[in-house]
Amino acid sequence: MVGMAFITLFTLLLIIPPMVKSIPGFMALFSVFRLFQGLSAAFVIPAVYSMIIVLYKDQSEELVGFANSASVFGIIFGPFLGLAFNAVIPWKGIFFIYTGILVTWGIIVMVVIPNKLNKCDVRELKTKFDERYSFQSL
After folding, report:
1. 0.70 cut: is pTM over it?
2. What span, in angstroms and rounded, lies between the C-alpha atoms of 47 and 65?
3. Which of 17, 37, 39, 78 could form a disulfide with 30 if both were Cys (CB 3.0 to 4.6 A apart)?
């Protein structure tokens, strides 16, 4: 949770650099916020893979493959999507669109997706996954 909170914080802070008028100021703020966003992701991603393996033993190969595919999809198609946005709107608007997409997907994942898709037995979490160690890994 701590890692996700930092990812969200530094993603929302990416709204600030386009408002800076000078190019060096923009680059400095953008670089620092992206650095901390990436470091926060580095805390979360290994924990997500370990949780998938521990909590979903029967489906772990399938779900780890899905998580890898989702990550690679973003890396591959992100630049093309950015170019498409840049052709239609000014480059500063891309940061607002990025934040809107992230917030929308966050709401969909947390609220709209039904809990019945989750095939993990919540009662077994206390025995399989200790919260103290999960906090340390995040």
Report:
1. no
2. 15
3. 17
